[in-house]
Amino acid sequence: MKKKILVVEDSPTQAQRAQLILQSCGYEVKWVQDGLEGLEETSSYNPDMVVTDVKMPNMNGYQMTRELKSRPETKKIPVLMLTTKNEVNDIIKGLEAGADNFITKPYESSFLIQRVENIFSNLALRQKGKLKEDRELENLKDKIVLTTDRKQILEILLSAISVVIHCNVIGIFLLSEVNKDSLLMVSLQQLSKTSSLDLRDKILAAAEALVDEEISTTGVRITSIVKNKEFPRLTGSFNSFISVPLISEGKVIGILTAANEASNSFNADDVKYLFMMGSESSAALNRISR
User: Which of 177, 141, 183 is CA-nearest to residue 288?
Assistant: First the structure.
């Protein structure tokens, strides 16, 4: 039986393009023009996935997603949200609404197909308990299972932040009460072992200063995502470094870090922006921990 996908998009041109791409891969596709119609059609059409734009009349993508995720009969339907490239707030708002994954516009046909197929494939494997790539990040309050989908979400979030402040590496380090601290790094280039350890040590030093206690390197698990493998490998130490706290319910749960090889590459505006993103990212982490 064909998988059914509901496309919620107010632009006929964009909607027809998505519809043609998905239909060419054998999916049954229906299109509606705003969030209100999306809610109605989800109830009657019973799609296997909803692909939605963010900005639409009557009801936007965030409002529709939040409503879908609040209803017992629709909360398990994956929602793929189309966001503006490098708009960090789109991703954070989408996470808070309950979106399961994201694609930034404009997108290549192959990228949309790959993301949809991955979501369906991961969903099927997870239901069978066979998704080997799932792992746990732990923080002070909850375990965050870093599924392939959630890894992609964090990658998109960190990548968008890195574009704004122009850094080689952006990372989220989550503290744990059980000595299994976790570090997720998104780097523009591959890191040598020396560079990776230099960054790890700088991040741990910043985390220790925040929590006023020693953090052992033996319990730190690093997940590294390289954005451009064709770029030269970074081999030196990082000479520009910003770390800001991630705070949830009054507690420091980790830090958000940006680093560059070049000296004096960050300014006061970069620090303010990263601090703001740290505050908003805490809400996003709370969302994916549920």
Answer: 141
176: confidence class by pLDDT, cuts 50, 70, 90: low
Same structural domain for residues 179 and 277?
yes
Cβ–Cβ under 8 Å, residues 62 and 38:
no
Going by the DSSP 8-state scheme, the letter that residue 287 receives in this structure is H
- State the virtual CA torsion across 38, 42, 45, 46 in degrees, nearest 10: 150
Are 140 and 214 within one domain? yes
Q: DSSP letter for 249, please.
A: T
CB 159 within 8 A of CB 258: no
Rounded-to-10 torsion of CA 158, 160, 166, 169:
20
CA Rg value for the chain: 20
- In this structure, the answer to whether residues 179 and 118 fall within a common structural domain is no
pLDDT, tens digit (0-9, with 9 covering 90-100), for 128-151: 665 444 444 433 334 444 455 556
* Residues spanned by the domain of 14: 4-127
94 and 154: one domain? no
Q: Quote the number of domains for the chain.
A: 2
Residue-wise burial string across 116-134, b where 16 or more C-beta atoms lie within 10 A, e elsewhere: beebbebbebeeeeebeeb
Rounded to whole angstroms, what are the CA distances from 86 to 48, 51, 104, 137? 28, 19, 8, 25
**pLDDT tens for residues 177-193?**
554 556 767 676 788 88
The CATH number for 203's domain is 3.30.450
